[in-house]
Design a protein that fits this description.
Arc Repressor Mutant, subunit A
């Protein structure tokens, strides 16, 4: 099935030039091969010699068509492609920050009585790649912190429970422990010391993150407008 979409003239021109150039080279190759048919016909017959040339030409003709279309697509969607590549380079801290922004965005729309947002809408509103939004939403949906709402064209998302019951700690915890397990290290002299300090850091962070919920953040956003 051929997609029904509008192609920019610059992207179509580049794809056409690339495909046309390759097609010209293919015709030169076919002409060179056909010039040998006369010599081969004395042994195999003319019809038998033409068959492999025809099949090779047919295969590479369709390959050129698809390659030209791919070039046009890449040029037309290069900005989107670069944004998606950027999602692969985001570290854990960046994903946690985006998760907080996504959840605040969903909570704010819910509080305003607006329609649930799709991944594309969230990405556009926050200025982040769609792939990154999808990766952040997946563990939140699995933990039922976010609900999927079936729309007419695309799945939308809404908070999975009252926003006053969702703290920043809930969100960060899901991003950090979801989809994995704790690693047991070897018992040696430094382990109890490191474990104790690590727990202190976790408790301090948990205390600070649990002190703020999405309801409070949405109210502060409303007060700053």
């Amino acid at each position: 099935m051929i997609p029904n979409t509008q192609v920019n003239w610059s992207a179509a021109l580049a794809g056409g030039l690339m495909g046309g150039s390759l097609w010209l080279l293919l015709n030169i190759f076919n002409a060179f091969q056909l010039s040998k048919v006369v010599g081969m016909s004395k042994i195999y017959g003319t019809a038998l010699a033409v068959i492999p040339i025809f099949l090779i030409g047919l295969y590479f003709s369709w390959w050129i068509v698809l390659f030209g279309a791919q070039v046009a697509y890449a040029l037309q969607n290069r900005q989107h492609y670069l944004q998606e590549k950027k999602a692969d380079s985001v570290n854990q801290r960046g994903r946690e920050y985006v998760a907080l922004r996504v959840m605040t965005n969903l909570a704010r729309r819910f509080e305003q009585g607006a329609e649930p947002s799709t991944t594309t809408e969230i990405a556009a509103q926050l200025g982040v790649p769609v792939r990154l939004v999808s990766r952040v939403l997946q563990p939140l949906v699995e933990a039922q912190l976010v609900l999927e709402v079936v729309g007419e064209k695309e799945v939308a998302y809404a908070p999975g429970r009252p926003i006053e019951d969702i703290t920043c700690h809930d969100i960060l915890k899901i991003l950090r422990v979801g989809g994995g397990q704790e690693l047991e290290t070897r018992q040696e002299p430094s382990r109890p010391i490191v474990t104790a300090e690590f727990k202190k850091i976790q408790e301090a962070e948990q205390q600070a993150a649990s002190a703020t919920n999405l309801k409070e953040m949405v109210n502060r956003i409303g007060g700053s407008e």
